[in-house]
Amino acid sequence: MVVRLINKYDQLKAKELIEENGFTYEDKFDAMFGIFEDGELVATATRDHNVFKMICIRDSHQGGNLLGELLTELVNSCEFTNIKNYFVFTKPDRCQSFQYFNFHPLVNHEKLCLLEYGNGLQSYLEQNRELVREGNNGAVVVNCNPFTRGHQYLIEEASRQVDHLYIFVVREDRSIFPFDVRFRLAQEGTAHLSNVTVLDTSDYAVSQVTFPGYFLKQGDDQQTIQMEVDLHLFGKHIAPFFNITKRFIGTEPYCRTTRIYSETMHKVLALYNIETVQLERKNIGSQPISASRVREALKREAFETLKDLVPDSTLGFLRSPQARDLLTTLKDYQRRH
């Protein structure tokens, strides 16, 4: 019988089981489940929002019904919280096991397989079908935390090189500026461009779904593999739907992770005949414009500086009461993006 692992002792046993099998334990999850036999924990699994992770069954108990029992409990916990579609990562040789339970693969990587339950990706694409344009189109994937003159410059330059440009705003809310604000500021900051469409990424770009650090074996180049999964999903599913033949990125002088992502992008997207175009960042003074630079100025309430860093639409928001409510959180915010 599957039970919820609530107390620290049982969770410690789950951690031991996971690490004994060479995987990295992550303490971020919404629910943890386990199966005991004669007092010994023989299987465990967790759910982090809509991602099933750390699914581990002792070798001595492989091949039975334990996987199905764990998945049933994970799915039930999703339905209880009104989550409609969910994802799982597994080894390539275990991909078929999950397909028996109505999961279907989105990305097959040499290190892992990403599968989805339900028709979330197809539903996402169908919801945006009216936005599809013929021609040689481009894409920019942005977080916009918040939208800056740097974002605006990149989008303006990219829009000149394609028939239509799609701006995918990262939906996942792990930034100081919430998604609805980031999305609105991107729309307002590009409203003057007739061949630009702004839409959200849903779960299908730069999200916890496409960056599965918890699954990868200790010693794997986790960061690169995570990026490859994200880019394969974009190249295989999203780009062809929107007739995207170019993806644009800016140069990155500060963040090593973003630089590696850019390098990986060239390699992976070329497999799908998608050109990666890197454009020079826009500078103010001797420094490139960045969202982190904007946030630092906002912390100081340096609005004269902000005038140079953000378009009028963003500046108007930064002066608003809603933005002032973010200042307390911003004081402790450490992330670059």
Question: Please, could you describe this protein's structure?
Answer:
This protein is α/β, with parallel strands linked by helices. It has helices spanning 8-20, 66-80, 95-99, 120-127, 149-159, 179-189, 222-241, 256-270, 291-299, 303-309, 312-318, 321-324, 327-330, and strands at residues 2-4, 31-37, 40-48, 51-57, 86-90, 103-108, 113-117, 137-142, 165-169, 196-200, 244-250, 275-279, 283-284, 287-288. The chain has a 7-stranded mixed beta sheet, with helices on both faces. Strands 10-9-8-11-12 form a 5-stranded parallel beta sheet. A hairpin with a 2-residue loop joins strand 13 (283-284) and strand 14 (287-288). Helix 7 (222-241) crosses helix 8 (256-270) and helix 9 packs antiparallel against helix 10 (303-309). The model has no long low-confidence stretch (mean pLDDT 90).
Quick overview of this protein structure:
Helices cover 38% and strands 22% of the residues. By secondary structure, the chain is of the alpha/beta class.
Distinct helical segment count: 13
Mean of all residue-level pLDDT scores: 90
Spatial sequence of strands, sheet with the most strands: 1-2-3-4-5-7-6
Q: Span between N and C termini?
A: 43 Å
Q: How would you spell out the order of helices and strands?
A: EHEEEHEHEEHEHEHEHEHEEEHHHHH
DSSP strand tally: 14
Overall body shape: globular
Q: Helix proportion of residues, in percent? A: 25-40%
Biggest sheet record = 7 strands, mixed
Radius of gyration: 22 Å
Unreliable stretches, pLDDT < 50, 5 or more residues?
A: none
Strand-residue proportion: 15-25%
Class based on secondary structure composition and strand pairing = alpha/beta
